[in-house]
Amino acid sequence: MLWLAAYIGSVLAINYAFSLAPHLDLVWSCWAGLIFILRDMVQVRYGHWSLAAMLVATLLSFLLADPFVATASVTAFAVSELIDWGVFTVTRRPLRDRLWISAALSVPVDTALFFGMLGIWDPTVWAASLASKLAGVSAVWMLMRARSARPATA
């Protein structure tokens, strides 16, 4: 339940924050990396029900955030979520690999759709968004890889 609450709360909070202070788009772009990790953990825990979590987060965003920001967010998340879902459904690789592959495919699409719909073309913001999202999932991948490489204790 913790992953679910953290995911929905983060989507809502970032959309609300972006609506209140769009000039801090670089800050919000870095925060977005966490949401991708949370989304993947919700999908691992709840499977296809992760789409329901996305719908709840979207509806709350529409109620509390700027509808223009919420529309860009839901469009980007919907497309990236479908990419993510496809990777998790089709790929039978270890979880850590599915997390990284899904991010490598969905993060650029999410970034382009979100900022493109908002008319934000600043390469610094785009680079920060891409880097934070990929860095976050890469850190999780490395931790999971190191954990699986540890010898079992008797």
Automatic annotation (TrEMBL):
Origin, by domain of life?
Answer: Bacteria
Q: Where are the transmembrane segments?
A: 46-64, 99-120, 126-144
Sorted alphabetically, the keyword list is:
Membrane, Transmembrane, Transmembrane helix
Output this protein's name.
PreQ0 transporter
